[in-house]
Structures are given as structure tokens and as C-alpha cells.
Amino acid sequence: MLLVYGLDQEKLNVIKDLAEKYSFQVKEVQDQDTLYTAGYLAQIPGADQRKFVKEDYPEGMEFLLFCQIDREALYGFLQDAQERGYQFPHKAVLTETTKAWPFSYLLGHIAQEHQVMQAYNRLGRKVKQCQDLDGPLAQDLVSQAKALAKLGDDLTLDHILDLEKQVDQLLEGKK
């Protein structure tokens, strides 16, 4: 099953077309459904169906949640969507952990995770510029950036933004 949230009709039609090709069932999640657990919405047997308090998540967010879908089919589906000109930056695979989460919490979590990854990738591009610079400060910033990867789940947006600010100051001073 594929749970979809926040898609306009054009994108929903593309998703449904691709889902038919890969034999996915598509279920559209409405705002009022976001209070239920992801597992319940995905119709996982025994999943908790309690309603929860709505968590914060970005307005207008588009989201795809792949539930019990073969990895090869998932990659084929995403490749086909990309070839048609559609990318979905907010997507996830339902896990044992996330099936118990309220859908609204999952939306907020994925949005935050996406924001962290975008900042991390942006920082990586800037750190590459620092690698060409001489001096202890540049090398220290490169080392700090490499150390961020070791934080794993403890990596936060603040860690990245703090280091990015220092990198920006160094690069600005070298212009």
C-alpha cells in the first residue's frame, strides 16, 4: 500500500497510474486522518487505531508513505516518477517504529529530517571549498564537518547551521 498526503489532482493521478503498474494500492490521507497511527491508516493487522492530538507539520506538505512494498518495486516506482518529471522529497517507508506514530507526527518528523539533510548537503558543498584553503581554521572546520556524520541520530539542524555560519565567515573573508 502507498499512503499519499497533500498531493494535487495531477500528481495524484500520476501516482495512481504508477501504482497500478507496480500493483500498489493507493490510499489518500486527509487532514482528519492524520490523528491516527500510520500503521492503522496502512491497514496493518493489529495496529493501534487510537486518535491522537494533532502534531505540527508544514502546511501544504506533500508526502508518500510506502507500506510493505518490495524495495525493487519502490525504486522502480520512484525512477518512473522522476522520468515523468515528478520528485517527492518527503517520502518514507513504514517501519516497525513508525507504524505506531500518529501520521501527523510522522509528517513533522519527515519534514524536519528533510530540512536537516538539505542543510547538511549545503554545508558539504561549502566545506569542499574550505578543503582548498590553507590554514588551521579551514582544516579545523573541515574536521568539524566530518565529525558531524558521527553524530548519527543526534545530528540537529542547529549543529549544521552553527558550523555553516563559521564556514561562511571563513569563505567570505577569503574573497
The helix content, as a percent range, equals 40-55%
**Oligomeric state of the chains in view:** single chain
Number of strands: 4
Mean pLDDT: 92
Strand order of the largest sheet: 2-1-3-4
Distance between the termini: 52 Å
The Cα radius of gyration reads 20 Å
Could you give a short account of the major beta sheet? 4 strands, mixed
Question: What report would you give on this structure?
Answer:
The structure is a single chain. The protein is an alpha/beta fold. It contains six helices and four strands, in the order βαβαβαβααα. It has helices at 9-21, 38-41, 71-83, 103-131, 136-148, 157-173; strands at residues 2-5, 26-29, 63-66, 91-93. Strands 2-1-3-4 form a four-stranded mixed β-sheet, covered by helices on one side. Helix 1 (9-21) links the parallel strand 1 and strand 2 (26-29). Helix 4 (103-131) packs antiparallel against helix 5 (136-148) and helix 4 (103-131) runs parallel beside helix 6. The protein is elongated and about 60 Å long.
Quick overview of this protein structure:
The chain is an alpha/beta fold.
Give structural attributes:
four-stranded mixed sheet, alpha/beta, 175 residues
List the helices and strands and how they pair.
Blueprint: E1 2-5, H1 9-21, E2 26-29, H2 38-41, E3 63-66, H3 71-83, E4 91-93, H4 103-131, H5 136-148, H6 157-173
Parallel strand pairs: 1-2, 3-4
Antiparallel strand pairs: 1-3
Helix pairs in contact: 4-5, 4-6, 5-6
